[in-house]
């Protein structure tokens, strides 16, 4: 019987293994400095273009996209030409490398077009990031009602995909704070969509993943900003107390922000945030300062402080922009797996000033053994379940994944009837959530949902990279919940169509002759359509 001989590794393979085994130092001394240099170069190029070239108008940028569609080969399927590594998903789409697909270059659709303070709206192009928008609006005294975490998230991605934040218990999902869209159909026609103008298309665009056309602008409602967020930290040392405290806060519209971090099956810290312009100097915490601990580690400290203290509560004031991007430095808690010593005091003071790597930067350096690890032993999932199913949901997340912390964020799927709108809903802002004809079922079992975010390496003994996700998906379908589609989607097409209501979506695709030019959602997001 012959003995299989493993060929010796090449020098290149040795180098890749060395980088993977010492990734924290590689990221610190090579990747982050390279990222800083790239950002400087891009900034200088943008300034050069700004002062030496005639800037195109929004109309000219739209016309170029229409011309590209007109010039596309007959019968070719259309997609954006944006490289897959630039998306926030850990996976990249396979179809973008298929010659049967024709990429449409959206160019630099990253402009803030107009801030209309009288109407309380901002009009932006789809590649505008959350960082851009907060930098523009906050000095004016305005902000978006829902600003999802991470500076690099774009308006187009949040509308076509999924967007939530800790104000979503009041205002719904990010995409349902939008009052108008401009979209180019596969025919090249430009349509304006609102609740009253092309309302069927307006309803179908959220969650549609670019399968109805090319979004070129969005009008988003804005609200008045304040300087600080007063945070109340409520440590909870048993499951029932944590769930009740979180649910009670989520049903209170006088609270501006609600969030909970679940640190074990029984322990959590619930956070209630209130916008304010007044803050005692000794209670202000600039949590995003490079020398400060990562936010989730800071929050965890309240659990140890409160042991044996029933009903303990802690308070501090956080600058508003710091609050919005409180999980950016640590990429929630994913960075700990990449730089295990990243939260150590010595590291923060020596290297914290350089900042953290971006998700897109990390994606292009996922090689060798690390690629296999992320493929088979890493989870990045958000599941949206009715609030009254939170206890059962936490149990199955623990059984299948045992990843901690878990991120808990409440949101409205449907706005309550006008007659029951709480009188303390600030700014008279009323979200338009799940308009008729959208992908969310028109009669959900609950109006208040919770997003459970699991990010990291599972510790559950029964974890299987396919079977565990499928079991959680089946649970979410049974409870009439939803899955955020940036992550692995193991559902069959039939299961997917059971989770999401396709009636209005299918009708829109037929009406606007989308079939044959743009794929449907499932074709783009199912597990087989993506790769690391």
UniProtKB/TrEMBL annotation:
Residues 44-225 form the FAD-binding PCMH-type domain. Pfam families: FAD_binding_4. It is found in: Membrane. One of its GO terms (molecular function) is FAD binding. The chain crosses the membrane at residues 25-45. The keyword Membrane applies. It comes from the Eukaryota. This is Delta(24)-sterol reductase. Keywords: Membrane, Oxidoreductase, Transmembrane, Transmembrane helix. GO terms for biological process: steroid metabolic process. The keyword Electron transport does not apply. GO terms for cellular component: cytoplasm; membrane. It is a single-pass membrane protein. Its EC number is 1.3.1.72.
């Amino acid at each position: 019987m012959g003995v299989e001989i493993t060929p010796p590794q090449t020098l290149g393979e040795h180098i890749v293994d060395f980088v993977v085994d010492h990734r924290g130092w590689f990221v610190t001394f090579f990747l982050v400095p390279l990222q800083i240099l790239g950002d400087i170069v891009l900034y200088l190029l943008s300034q050069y273009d700004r002062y030496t070239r005639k800037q195109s108008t929004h109309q000219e940028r739209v016309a170029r996209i229409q011309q590209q569609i007109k010039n596309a080969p007959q019968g070719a399927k259309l997609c954006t030409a944006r490289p897959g590594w630039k998306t926030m998903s850990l996976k990249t789409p396979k179809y973008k490398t298929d010659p049967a697909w024709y990429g449409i270059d959206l160019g630099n659709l990253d402009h803030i077009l107009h801030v209309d303070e009288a109407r309380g709206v901002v009009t932006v192009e789809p590649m505008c990031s959350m960082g851009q928008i907060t930098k523009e609006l906050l000095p004016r005294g305005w902000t978006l009602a829902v600003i999802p975490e991470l500076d690099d998230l774009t308006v187009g991605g949040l509308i076509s995909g999924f967007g939530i934040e800790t104000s979503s218990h009041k205002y719904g999902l990010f995409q349902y704070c939008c009052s108008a869209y401009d979209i180019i159909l596969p025919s090249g026609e430009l349509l304006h969509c609102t609740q009253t103008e092309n309302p069927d298309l307006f309803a179908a665009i959220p969650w549609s993943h670019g399968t109805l056309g090319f979004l070129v602008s969005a009008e988003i409602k804005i609200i008045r900003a304040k300087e600080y967020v007063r945070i109340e930290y409520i440590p909870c040392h048993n499951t029932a107390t944590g769930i009740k405290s979180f649910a009670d806060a989520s049903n209170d519209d006088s609270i501006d922000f609600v969030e909970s971090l679940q640190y074990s099956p029984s322990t959590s810290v619930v956070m209630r945030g209130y916008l304010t312009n007044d803050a005692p100097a000794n209670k202000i915490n600039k949590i995003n300062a490079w020398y400060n601990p990562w936010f989730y580690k800071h929050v965890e400290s309240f659990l140890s402080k409160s042991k044996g203290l029933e009903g303990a509560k802690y308070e501090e004031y956080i600058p508003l922009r710091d609050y919005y991007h409180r999980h950016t430095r640590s990429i929630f808690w994913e960075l700990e797996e990449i730089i295990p010593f990243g939260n150590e005091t010595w590291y923060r003071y020596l290297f914290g000033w350089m900042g953290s790597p971006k998700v897109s930067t990390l994606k292009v350096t996922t090689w060798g053994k690390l690629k296999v690890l992320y493929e088979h032993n890493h989870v990045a999932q958000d599941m949206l379940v009715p609030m009254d199913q939170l206890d059962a949901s936490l149990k199955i997340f623990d059984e299948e994944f045992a990843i901690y912390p878990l991120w808990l964020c409440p949101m409205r799927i449907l706005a309550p009837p006008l007659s029951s709108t709480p009188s303390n809903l600030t700014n008279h802002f009323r979200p338009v959530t799940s308009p008729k004809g959208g992908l969310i079922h028109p009669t959900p079992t609950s109006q208040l949902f919770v997003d459970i975010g699991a990010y990291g390496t599972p510790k559950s003994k029964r974890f299987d990279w396919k079977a565990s996700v499928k079991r959680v998906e089946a649970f979410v379908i049974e409870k009439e919940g939803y899955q955020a589609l940036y992550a692995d989607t193991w559902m069959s097409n039939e299961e997917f169509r059971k989770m999401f209501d396709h009636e209005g979506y299918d009708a829109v695709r037929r009406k606007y002759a989308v079939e044959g030019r743009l794929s449907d959602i499932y074709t783009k997001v199912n597990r087989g359509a993506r790769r690391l």
